[in-house]
Amino acid sequence: MCVLLSGSKSPSQMASAQSSQLKDEVQDFWNAEPCGSRYLEAAEDFEAFEAHLRSRYALEPHIPQFAKFSSARDLRVLEIGAGIGADYLEWLRAGADATGIDLSAISIERAKRRCVLAGYEPDLRVADAERLPFAADTFDVVYSYGVMHHTPQPAQCLAEAWRVLKPGGEARIMLYHHPSLTGMMLWLRYGAWRGKSMRRTVFDHLESPETKTYTKAEVRALMQGFESVDIQQVFSPGDLLLNAPSARFQSAVCRLAWKLYPRFLVRKFSGPWGLFLLISGRKP
Q1: Which end of the chain has fewer CB atoms surrounding its CB within 10 Å, N or C?
Q2: What are the φ/ψ torsions at residue 264 (nearest 5 degrees)?
């Protein structure tokens, strides 16, 4: 029999504390630089938000087709990780009854401003994807683009998405793939000379702390409660060095790499190394 001394913590308590600490770190990261804000002009007026939208879909033109905005009228939609509201506003424009959540309060405030400037009244709130504040069987669609791999427990996020979907409802999720060209480039920059694996390098250096990546087989295991699971793989702006380089990549060598990168060859021969996995599945 295990006896806990006064003041000591059980393994489950320790794991919960670590998860909470990581969640705080992830929240701080995205509060400091809300996702996509690098492409948002300082004015944050209607035209600035519209320019941000055009930049987003120019870099990731697959998003509208994957999200299926055009067929969302009258559907009850939940967006997990609404960020500064680019996709969320498209749900409203399409006529969906859309709710959005994010862990970042600053992101939610910007998303609200975006929607109000566009003439819509948003339903946006700060909430935790691992503990959704909604009843079971509520939504026709749960959409989450590039968010769940940043949480301590992505499997719990997917379980919650399944719970709040109506029977027959569809989850549309983007998760990061392993291996990827983005992972390889990060590994060459940060991991190779330190003896780190590619996956560990991504874990440590891609966006917020402890970013996870998944093989297609691992994704299918995560989606085991869903049926009609479909996985499409596409390149990210990072795979193609189409994104604006962050402050970490401003050296002369990095600027030259951005300029000379053989995008045509990458598109032609490196399909299995795309970072983005576009995943859909239905709740039975």
Answers
A1: N
A2: -60, -45
